[in-house]
Amino acid sequence: MRSGVLNRVLLALVGLVLLTVGGSVLAVGLGAPPPSWWIHTGPHDVLLTRAERTHWRGAGWWWPTVLGALAVVVLLALWWLTAVLRRRRLTEVLVDTGDGRGALLRGRALESALAEEATRQDGVAHAQVLLRGRRRTAPGVSARLRLEPGVAPAAALDTFTGRSLTRARESAGVAALPAEVHLRAGRHRAERVT
Question: Which residue has the higher pLDDT, 44 or 108?
Answer without folding.
Answer: 108
